[in-house]
Amino acid sequence: MPNKEFNGLIPQPELLGFSQDFKIVRPSIKVDPLFPDRKTQNLLAEYQIIASNGLLPTMALVHAMDTEAEIGSRPAIDTVMLEKMLIKRKINTTERMEMLKKHAGVPDTALKRYVFDDASRLMESVNLRTKVMKAELLTTGKLTIRENNLDFEVDYRVPAENLAFTADFSTDDADPAALFNEVNTYAGSLGLTINGIMTSSKIMNRIRSLKSMQTIILGNVGVGALVPKDRLEAYLSGEFGYTRVIINDDQYGVDASENGVQKVKRYRYTPENHISFFVANASGAVGEGLWGVTVEEEKSGAFTEKSMRQFITIAQWETPDPPATWTKAAGLFVPVLPNPSSLFGATITLPGDSASAASLPAKKSARVKAGMDELDV
Fold it and tell me: Which of 21, 105, 204, 222 sits 20 to 30 Å CA-CA off 275?
């Protein structure tokens, strides 16, 4: 029999279970594993703990017997002006329910499935925004929030010099090894050893086609032959210590409206003309994706062990005028970079780019919002 009662509202226990079972890890998004996700009840306090653990350790002094111990000091953390990034999205479920009810024979299970499909899409949208934040931080050392009438910047205090590298790969005599040596030498002066890079396939393919790389890796007889990917990665690992070479051409979509027509614009997570150099820890992470507790989660019940895997919360409510049933997904998130000095970046000029691009101040270039380089569609 057709269902005439179900209006789209799901019992709270089901919504809670659905929220706790939603998996947010996306290994296929290249930047995600560099900032593994973790839940905390106190976002700011946990941020400070992570930041202090990432600082360079200081040495205790040797003392004579029966002398007073030196008084230690807590790390002076240059705390980022941390904004609690509330990410949320909602949809009117009633519109879909009314449409489905007009079709005979639609059972409760099918109607609920449509509601949970809505919930899944909303949660994916919230989750996706966190991946874009991770990519922007890795590229620029900052987060730029210009959406929903918000306009502010979170500065992670990555030294401007770290992001000031440039190189011109547009000429036939370009020497990428010189750039890698320059960045490594600078990082070494800070007591850091770079062990990974992230860049685009366009840059990697350009490196493979350059005579300097062909000669170094393949010898003089290899000039003119494209360097195999595995040979280039082995060279970068053995010569420069880049044990992780990540080629990131991932894209995502943003809803947009042009002349009243709804469309989806595509963007890259990271710019095509950029190389990010990073110092990853033993587990392969550069930082962390820190999640907090939203108001919606607080209202859904007490914080339990299961809450530690509840990163995004689904909520529902009804409005009487106009009559509507809403489904909303919400999450509280901020990426953390424990050691701001461990991140480096280079802006690359490629064939077809402006001849003056490589001479632009890299500090200015690095401020371009990563992940918002619109693609032609």
Answer: 222
